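Hi D.,

Good news: the full-assembly prediction came through. Inputs first.
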Amino acid sequence: MQRSQTAYLVLGMLSIEPNRSGYTIRKAVEGSVNYFWGESYGQIYPTLKRLAAQGLIVARASTSATRPRRQEYSLTPAGHACLEEWLAVPYRDDRPRNEFLLKLFFGREAAPSVSIRHLRDFQEKNRRLLATLVDLETLARKHNAGNPNLSFWMLTLTFGIAQTRSALEWSESALAILSGANNG
Amino acid sequence: MQRSQTAYLVLGMLSIEPNRSGYTIRKAVEGSVNYFWGESYGQIYPTLKRLAAQGLIVARASTSATRPRRQEYSLTPAGHACLEEWLAVPYRDDRPRNEFLLKLFFGREAAPSVSIRHLRDFQEKNRRLLATLVDLETLARKHNAGNPNLSFWMLTLTFGIAQTRSALEWSESALAILSGANNG
DNA sequence: ACACACATGTAATTGGTTACATGATTTC
DNA sequence: GAAATCATGTAACCAATTACATGTGTGT
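Then the structure:
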């Protein structure tokens, strides 16, 4: 049976740590895979219900007295098997969509200042991203010593850092070229 | 009025070269922006009809005797204005989705050979992509000398090449780490 | 004769976003 | 008392993919 990518994200997140709710899954996404994988609540909550109906995860109310309305989920053996099955099949290439590059590609139709502004935005975003990722690297190492997932998390992190650094280097030379053509 | 991203891709492609059909737009995408922007016929054809109905492009049957059924479109002044307007607004960040990285992130749930296979696939794809982009760079320079779009196209190309090279470098070290952990 | 590239389109479905709706708890 | 965070969900909408359907022209 084919499932949405969101379903596997949820299964994977529950495999790392059981007893997570929709809310904490979203938070976990934000603090880990966010720079290469986005998810919204509107997708997570229905997916949790669907996976529970299919027997891949089980729900139970949280035991906390202070936050009683929280629904926590955990993987069933079937859920874990489903995750492993998915992991083993070749990854699919998600359709690329980079509006920044598209606007740059059509840059000649606008004033040079337009493309320069996009480039500065891009640079700013990537600087912030790099700072976030470097922080995350430090935190991840600190809080997950001995965690068997750590080496995999580090691989995705070093990928993100390398890509971001390369993007920043490129943006410097791109800005030099565009600024030169604009007023040099 | 907000339009789909596909609409702007179409307007942009027609701004570069008028008298293009759905088919040739798709081909142009394949030979230029494909590595950062995907489009399917199922999206392009309806978009052309919609844009024509809105007066942003005009259709006319191709004059070629050999291919009479081809519908060719060109920008109207309104269409060009619409493109410029879009170019001037800040680019939006498309939701990232990288299934390769997601499988790697959850790699600990599968046998090490699974992640190694994904990494090799990734490497192979990036090698092919790099070759394509480098070829494209040569071709673009050769066939577009003096084309005022060239510098913008080159910027997107050098970005793609830099990112791909960085991905390949990373994949080498990632494979070394995983292979070492697997059988070292 | 066959295969491939040219060429255009539609329909069903899915996947996902966004806005909306609600309310408890914690912190200042 | 207000604001922020915790927490869960639904409904409307839209963007896009995929499969389907059809037919011509060209080259081998």
